[in-house]
Each structure stands twice: as C-alpha cells, then as structure tokens.
Specification:
The protein is an alpha/beta fold and 241 residues long. It has a single domain, classed as Rossmann fold. It contains seven helices and twelve strands.
C-alpha cells in the first residue's frame, strides 16, 4: 500500500500557495549549484493553479535554479490552445524571465514516435539516474475522473508495462496521439505530487486511496521507489476520504 500524505486546500489560490512553498523548499534543500528538476502536467487544474502561482507567489521561487520538463504533451504545435508547453509558458512562466534553455519541452509538432524517442534520450542525458532510470526531483501529476494520469489511460496494458522512458499514447475517446512519460520514470521521481480538484473526481480519489494497484486506474500504479507521494486536493475532490 502506498503511503500518501494528503493536503486539502479550499481553492486554487490556496493550492498555489502550497505548491510555491513546496517547490521553494525542495529547491533550497539542494546544493547551491544544483538545479531542481521539475516535471509539469497539463490540464485545467494545473492551468488554474499555475496562474495563481504566477500572479501571487512566483517571488517565493528561485526560477533560475529550476529545470522544467513535461509529463505529457498533445501532438499539436506549441501555439495550439491544446498544447501543454504553450499553457506552461502562458500561465506559469510568462514574465518571470525564466531561462529558455532550462525548459525541456516535448515537441508536439514533431513526428510522435521520433519525438518520444528524442525526449526519452533527453531525460537520460540531462537527469541523474538510479540504474537505467532518469530521476526527477519533483513530478506534478493530474488525475482524470477515469483514473488516468499523465497520458497513461485505463487498461492500456502495453503502455502501462513499457520499459521505455517516453512513449506515444492515444486518448481512448478522441484517438488523438500524445507523448507521455512512462510509469518507471514517474515512479523514480523523488517527490510525486498529485494536484486534483472537483467533486467529479472524488469517487476516483477514494477508489485509488482504498484499492490495490489496478491497470483500470493507472494513477493507482504510481508508487515512489523512494521519497514521498503527496495528494494536493481541493475540498470537493477530498470529500469522500
């Protein structure tokens, strides 16, 4: 059973305040010349939380000491409204003077399989390792009401058991392609932080908390090799716990 710390906040502002403090603390704990390797997810909840963080709490964070990676990306150009990298730039990094070379974006405009391989190699080249696996310091994850996280969808047995760093997936309904980190990379992150809002996800949160690892709920397969897993929830997402 995964040990989870649960943090409940009332709104996006409170969640952003917690996130800013968390990132600042983890950055400060590293040696002075070492950057924090942070992977970010897309989606409505991260967008809203990032916006509040940028507007209210960005001065708490030393952005020059952070390298940003992506958890997943839709196969669209960065200027497309569906682009996760575009969202990160617009809602989090805009106006912060963030060093461009420290944002390792997934190129959604590239051929998907080639990009998945390129990005997997970029992880290997730019991160420390445990065995063959690249190790992120912090990974921010979302949760779909169907139990998916990153772009790892329910019962996609091949991708959920992948031994690669990065793969191409398809959304089960739209069939649109995405690029995503795999479970071993996610599970080797030193700190896993789920950020979840909304009453429509409360039953899924309860299922993951109370159940065993199950490929029907990919988020239930996220378990740190070492380190900690934190669930940052609003009151609606936490109401059935």
């Amino acid at each position: 059973m995964v040990k989870r710390e649960t943090v409940v906040r009332g709104d996006y502002k409170g969640m952003a305040e917690y996130l800013a403090g968390f990132i600042s603390e983890k950055t400060a704990s590293l040696p002075e010349n070492v950057a924090l390797n942070l992977a970010l997810s897309g989606g409505k909840t991260p967008k809203a939380v990032f916006d509040q963080l940028r507007l209210r709490y960005s001065e708490q964070i030393n952005w020059k000491r952070i390298c940003i990676f992506q958890v997943d990306e839709r196969c669209v150009p960065p200027e497309d409204p569906e682009s996760n990298s575009g969202m990160i730039r617009q809602y989090l990094l805009h106006g912060l003077g963030f060093p461009e070379h420290q944002f390792f974006r997934m190129k959604g405009e590239s051929e998907p399989e080639s990009e998945a391989r390129r990005y997997g190699q970029a992880l290997s080249d730019n991160l420390p390792h445990v065995g063959k696996w690249p190790v992120l310091d912090v990974i921010l994850l979302g949760l779909g009401s169907d139990g998916h996280t990153a772009s790892l969808f329910p019962d996609d047995h091949t991708l959920l058991r992948s031994e690669r760093n990065c793969v191409v997936s398809r959304h089960p309904e739209s069939r649109r392609m995405r690029i995503t980190l795999t479970l071993p990379v996610i599970n080797h992150a030193r700190n896993q932080l789920f950020v979840v809002t909304g009453a429509e996800k409360a039953s899924t949160v309860r299922e993951i908390y109370s159940g065993n690892p199950d490929e029907h709920f990919p988020a239930s397969l996220v378990a740190p090799s070492e380190g900690e897993q934190i669930w940052l929830l609003d009151k609606q997402a936490a109401m059935l716990l």
